[in-house]
């Protein structure tokens, strides 16, 4: 939301500014025009403006700056142009139309005054080349399109026609001009397939001289120099490419401008005018193809240590310490320097050394082209860590190179180094008194590696007795036997369970029903009493009592006698049961007396016995037996 | 306690009764085991295999004999016959590490991958467990546990006063008995159908017991299959991967 808002506000704040470097210029002078758009967002199209009368215009490109300050984005877009004034008078540049994100903005035109160029070429302050006074070639008025190849041309040349593989051939581009011209660079880069190219820096190559060719005076300059290191044998045709240049044609040629790298240089003198029309043209300068023969290196006398280095080299080796303790590193340095393709040379490597750990080496290459030859040095550092004390020698390394000048191989050797390795710091003296009793150091455990898989060896002894295969499950007898066991088990279990339940249930039943049965019997006895059946009454009362106690105590009825009554009682029930038991004993005696003594009992006595029996049962019912 | 030991005595007696009678040995001077081993040690695997076969042919059989015969065949490159011999040795000594190792090695060089696809983990585990026992061991163990159970029942019946101890042993016996019975049933299921080992390099199984029938699958030497049915010259077999087909009897041998 905020971003959107600021974007629109930024859009609203679009500002277009146009500026020129000078408001007053001389004919032939350059003018910088900048169109600066600030605060715009979105796509900015190239400004459109009508052809500027009296000026040649060149676009210098477009630059953009975006900055965000405190979350606020601001942008600045600059379109730069170079205008070269062609004619005198008050000129109007613009108006300009700029399309920003679909909307068209207009910028006001600028007024510039172009004055007569009164001074000659010499009147320019010659900044870079304040050499001997330049003698200008005879003034010529040339039609623009008619700048001939005689007026400006490029020559390419190699310093050698025949080289060995990896021997540099120098390719030089030389421009010859009779006009005021500006070197713009390469329109088409040279094709250098099959070569390792090292370009020389332009400030070292550009050298201006003057030459008279076919009676004409030319300004001559080497615009580019490069070293080509062939990588293959063969005959090569080089396409050196084409060179772009702008040529200024007017009455008075300005030589200096050709090599001025800063064409926007402030050259505007106050009295600055030219009476002559000046025109600027772009020109593409072709070059001629070149032939180069690359020879193979001679096989004769090629040393075993040769790895392809061509040129003139020296080799040196050094160590940073000659005395070290075991385990501390030593840096061994090999320096190969000289002329040639340093980048591709191989430093001889150290042989495997007993008693040392050798770590990967690092190398650095330093190339200098300042003397217009490719030269430099390659430094290779190897770290050696001695493992044991002693005196060691780092062997001399052999480095072979081919010298193309003499056509011979040259073998160089480094000097050997002696390294004294001292024992490392003594280990802490052992605390234990007995030397060598350092205890058992556990071995590092590792799984036993399986070397291969194969069957195990034959058995040499037959076991005494092996369990023979019977296949019991196939035998009906086995199944019959098992079934028999199962059936027998179940039958026994069933039988046991039944017996158990019969026993326990009978007791319980009798116990639970004892009172009911006794009451029923007492009722029957009461009936006999009413009917005055004396014997039946006593028998019933006796049955009721003995049956009741037998059921209660889980005893057979015959075993209930006045002597044994109460024997099966649990001890804790004895106390509560004792009055009932005493009564019961008395009652049993009364009953026996009534039944077996031939003494007549009155109805009242019989009624008393009945009541006693009722009382005993009621009392005993209250006794807790379980 | 006395009754428990008498129950074991009864078990032992019953087993002895069941196992009475073995193959009658009528030897006609076959080479001895040591002689055959000497041939193997000398590197003459063919002669060694012949000697072992001769001993077996005379009616004498031992797991060591089968094992050594398997080794001899393995050295001769006859994987099918080697597996047959190893399987026969394992039937007697299922927990022998040497036989197990050699079977693993042998199976690792067989052509056919014979794994039951999508096998239940429980079934896989059961298979591993029952492989450690012979069917006889499981049968005997089941009977022994049944007898123990019976002994406890009898004890409860005869001495009701002691019933807590036998009931406790009974309670322990029942789950063990059920577990062993399950293993026994599983093993029985595994062994009830005879198995064959394919002895020829390649055997074409068909959909019926005739060369005119459609081809079903191609099995290679050392493949094991269960016999489901048989015709005059053919076995109807099922591979562990559940493909079925009829193969000629002469291309295989029953373990």
Structure description:
The complex is a heterodimer of chains A (626) and B (255). Chain A has helices at 2-12, 202-205, 256-259, 476-530, 534-553, 574-596, 603-621, and strands spanning 15-20, 24-26, 30-38, 55-69, 72-85, 89-93, 96-100, 103-107, 110-115, 152-158, 162-164, 169-177, 180-188, 195-199, 208-213, 216-230, 234-238, 242-249, 279-285, 290-295, 306-319, 323-325, 330-340, 356-368, 375-386, 390-394, 398-403, 408-413, 417-422. Chain A is an alpha+beta fold and 626 residues long. Chain A is elongated. The model of chain A is unreliable at 1-11, 119-145, 251-276 and 428-437 (pLDDT under 50). With 255 residues, chain B is of the alpha+beta class. Chain B has 9 helices and 7 strands, in the order αααααααααβββββββ. In chain B, the strands form 2 sheets. Chain B has a 5-stranded antiparallel sheet with strand order 6-5-4-1-7. In chain B, strands 2-3 form a two-stranded antiparallel sheet. The longest helix of chain B is centred in the last third of the chain and has 28 residues, at 164-191. Chain B is globular. The chains are: A alpha+beta (626), B alpha+beta (255).
């Amino acid at each position: 939301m905020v971003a959107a808002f600021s974007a629109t506000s930024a859009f609203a704040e679009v500002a277009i500014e146009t500026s020129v470097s000078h408001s007053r210029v001389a004919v032939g002078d350059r003018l910088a025009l900048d169109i600066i758009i600030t605060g715009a967002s979105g796509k900015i199209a190239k400004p459109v403006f009508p052809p500027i009368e009296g000026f040649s215009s060149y676009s210098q490109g477009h630059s953009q700056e975006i900055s965000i300050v405190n979350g606020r984005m601001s942008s600045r877009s600059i379109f730069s142009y170079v205008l070269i004034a062609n004619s005198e008078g008050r000129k109007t540049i613009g108006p300009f139309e700029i399309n920003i994100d679909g909307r068209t903005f207009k910028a006001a035109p600028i007024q510039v005054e172009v004055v007569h160029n009164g001074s000659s070429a010499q009147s320019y302050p010659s900044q870079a080349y304040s050499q001997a006074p330049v003698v200008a070639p005879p003034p010529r008025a040339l039609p623009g399109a008619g700048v001939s190849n005689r007026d400006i041309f490029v020559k390419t040349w190699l310093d050698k026609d025949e080289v060995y593989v990896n021997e540099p051939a120098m390719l030089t581009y030389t421009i010859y001009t009779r006009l005021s011209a500006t070197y713009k660079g390469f329109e088409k880069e040279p094709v250098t397939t099959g070569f390792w190219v090292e370009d020389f820096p332009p400030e070292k190559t550009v050298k201006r001289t003057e030459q008279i060719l076919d009676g004409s005076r030319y300004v001559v300059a080497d615009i580019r120099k490069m070293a080509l290191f062939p990588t293959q044998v063969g005959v090569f045709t080089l396409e050196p490419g084409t060179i772009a240049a702008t040529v200024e044609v007017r009455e008075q040629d300005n030589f200096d401008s050709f090599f001025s790298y800063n064409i926007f240089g402030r050259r505007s003198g106050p009295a600055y005018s030219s009476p002559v029309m000046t025109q600027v043209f772009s020109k593409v300068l072709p070059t001629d193809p070149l032939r180069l023969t690359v020879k193979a290196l001679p096989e004769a006398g090629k040393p075993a240590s040769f790895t392809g280095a061509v040129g003139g080299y020296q080799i040196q080796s050094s160590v940073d310490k000659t005395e070290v303790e075991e385990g501390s590193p030593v840096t061994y340095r090999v320096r190969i320097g000289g002329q040639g393709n340093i980048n591709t040379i191989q430093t001889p490597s150290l042989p495997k050394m007993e008693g040392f750990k050798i770590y990967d080496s690092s190398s650095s290459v330093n190339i200098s082209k300042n003397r217009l030859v490719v030269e430099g040095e390659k430094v290779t550092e190897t770290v050696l860590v001695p493992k044991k004390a002693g005196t060691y020698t780092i062997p001399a390394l052999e480095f072979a190179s081919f010298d193309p000048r003499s056509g011979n191989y040259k073998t160089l050797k480094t000097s050997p180094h002696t390294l004294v390795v001292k024992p490392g710091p003594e280990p802490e003296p052992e605390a234990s008194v007995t030397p060598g009793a350092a205890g058992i150091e556990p071995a590092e455990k590792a799984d036993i590696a399986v070397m291969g898989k194969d069957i195990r060896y034959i058995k040499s002894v037959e076991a005494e007795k092996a369990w023979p295969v019977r296949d019991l499950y196939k035998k009906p007898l086995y199944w019959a036997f098992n079934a028999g066991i199962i059936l027998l088990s179940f039958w026994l279990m069933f039988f046991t369970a039944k017996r158990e339940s019969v026993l326990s249930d009978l007791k319980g039943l009798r116990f639970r029903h004892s009172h009911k049965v006794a009451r029923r019997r007492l009722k029957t006895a009461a009936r006999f009493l009413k009917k005055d059946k004396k014997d039946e009454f006593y028998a019933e009362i006796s049955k009721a009592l003995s049956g009741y106690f037998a059921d209660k105590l889980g005893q057979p009825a015959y075993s209930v006698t006045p002597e044994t009554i109460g024997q099966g009682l649990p001890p804790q029930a004895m106390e509560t049961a004792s009055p009932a038991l005493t009564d019961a004993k008395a009652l049993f005696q009364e009953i026996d007396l009534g039944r077996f003594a031939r003494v007549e009992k009155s109805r009242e006595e019989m009624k008393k016995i009945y009541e006693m029996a009722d009382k005993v049962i009621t009392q005993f019912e209250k006794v807790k037996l379980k | 306690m006395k009754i428990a030991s008498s129950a074991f005595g009864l078990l032992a007696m019953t087993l002895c009764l069941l196992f009475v009678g073995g193959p009658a040995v009528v030897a006609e001077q076959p080479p001895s085991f040591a002689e055959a081993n000497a041939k193997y040690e000398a590197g003459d695997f063919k002669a060694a295999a012949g000697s072992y076969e001769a001993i077996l042919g005379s009616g004498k059989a031992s797991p060591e004999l089968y094992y050594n015969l398997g080794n001899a065949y393995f050295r001769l490159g006859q994987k099918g016959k080697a597996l047959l011999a190893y399987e026969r040795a394992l039937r007697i000594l299922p927990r022998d590490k040497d036989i197990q190792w050699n079977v693993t090695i042998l199976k690792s060089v067989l052509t056919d991958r014979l794994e039951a696809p999508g096998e239940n983990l429980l079934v896989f585990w059961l298979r591993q467990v029952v492989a450690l026992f012979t069917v006889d061991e499981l049968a005997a163990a089941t009977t022994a546990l049944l007898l123990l159970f019976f002994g406890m029942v009898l004890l409860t019946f005869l001495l009701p006063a002691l019933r807590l101890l036998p009931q406790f042993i009974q309670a322990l016996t029942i789950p063990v008995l059920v577990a062993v019975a399950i293993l026994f049933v599983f093993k029985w299921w595994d062994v009830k159908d005879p198995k064959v080992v394919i002895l020829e390099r390649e055997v074409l199984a068909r959909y019926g017991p005739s060369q005119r029938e459609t081809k079903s699958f191609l099995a290679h030497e050392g493949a094991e299959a269960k016999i489901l049915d048989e015709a005059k010259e053919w076995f109807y077999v099922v591979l562990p991967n559940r493909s079925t087909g009829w193969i000629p009897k002469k291309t295989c041998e029953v373990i």
